[in-house]
Amino acid sequence: MKIPLVMRPFRLILTFIAVILIAISSFILGSSLKNAEDSIIDAANIVVPVTATAELRTVSHSAKVQGIVTPGTVVDVPAPLLEGQGPPVITQLFSGIGEDVKSGSILGTVSGRPLIMVNSDVPLYRDLHQGDTGPDVRALQREFESWGYFPGNTGILDEATINAFQRIYRVMKVDPPIDGKTVYIRFQEFFHIAGNTGTITELRPIGESVDKEHPVARIKTSPDVVSARASLSVSDSFPPGTPVVFKLPGTKVESTVLSVSSFVDGDGTKPAGIDVIMALPEGTTLGLGVPVLVGTVAPETTGVAVPVTAIREDDSGLYVLIDDDLTSGTPSRQPPKRVEISVQAQDDGWAVLAPNDKVREGIHVVVSP
Fold first, then answer.
1. Gap between the Cα atoms of 127 and 184, Å rounded
2. Within 10 Å of residue 161's Cβ, how many Cβ atoms?
3. What is the CA radius of gyration of the chain?
4. Torsion angles phi and psi, residue 305, rounded to 5
5. Is the domain 51-59+300-368 a CATH 2.60.40.1230 member?
6. Which one of 133, 148, 184, 346 is least enclosed by Cβ atoms within 10 Å?
7. Above 90 in pLDDT, residue 68?
8. pLDDT digits (tens, 9 = 90+) for 225-273
9. What are the boundaries of each domain within the chain?
């Protein structure tokens, strides 16, 4: 059935109204989404300052360097050279790993021959026969005296010195070396130990052979130390004998500067300056390579402190930004206020300020931005 022509204009009017309504709805929806998006962008652009609270702290004026635990000196004890014999072999041990040795101590015997620790000021460098003279003879006589034998300090390898030498070997139950029918002192049976004492860290077992890779023993003659490179700005603060403090997790340990080097150029990993060696106190258990913050012993300052990161600088000097009402100390909605300051001391990332009535304990200072 055909629709009368008179009804077609009415349909066109309805269609036109529907299109108008859809357009209006789309405009309203688009406007609301745009407003929401703008609000998100505006919120993202808001910068929230990071603040810290000024607090009462005590810091020192000490010079500081970053150190590290380094090993002490360890020396190898080689086997004495034995002519006309095979590879040297450990035949007796009179000491053990972890034991301390000193001048007069006997490590053991190698292929039947003893190894005796000495610390003479002139190390033995030759075999000595009766009648020999020299500073090495006199130094050995002083060593014998320190062990409880008294051959006299003549500088001559006389009969009294030979007799003392024989008594020492008799205690070890080892025959002294003989050249033909004459007793002599074989220098290779004595090992010079620096510092007079040491601790055995390694010891070749009985029955094992000895060579360059496997010495009779390894002896630690100096303890572990803390070493640090002091830059030129603080190098004058660390002369030998200076008391220092090691800052360790949860504690502090006092020590002393043992020695310093001459000037050393920077190498890309360390600045130019001097190398400082400090004693690691007895009983301090720190592994090799452990970092240690070292500071000189210095007077302390107590006062209102702020994080170093809160301190700013421009052409007018140092200042901080206060994010509090300066009178009541309550949070302020006003922009942060500039307050000029002076630093008295700083340590561990905090700076104690000179007295300032505008920066007091509890005030919030802007750290960033």
1. 7
2. 24
3. 41
4. -125, 150
5. no
6. 148
7. yes
8. 999 999 887 888 899 999 999 988 878 889 999 999 999 998 888 888 9
9. 51-59+300-368, 64-71+224-296, 74-220
Q: Which two tokens stand for residue 121?
A: 């000021």
What is the DSSP code string of 174-233?
Answer: -PPPEETTEE-B-GGGEEE-TTSEEEEEEEPPTT-B--SSS-SEEEE-S--EEEEEEETT
64-71+224-296 CATH fold: Elongation Factor Tu (Ef-tu); domain 3 (2.40.30)
Bridging pattern class, strands 291-296 and 273-279: unpaired
Residue from 135, 154, 153, 137 nearest 145 by CA: 153
Distance CA(208)–CA(111), nearest Å, equals 10
pLDDT tens-digit readout, 276-329: 999 988 778 788 899 999 999 888 889 999 999 999 988 888 999 998 655 555
Phi, psi of 224 (to 5 degrees): -60, 150
Q: Which of 4-8, 146-150, 280-284, 334-338 has the lowest mean pLDDT?
A: 4-8
pTM for this model (two decimals): 0.59
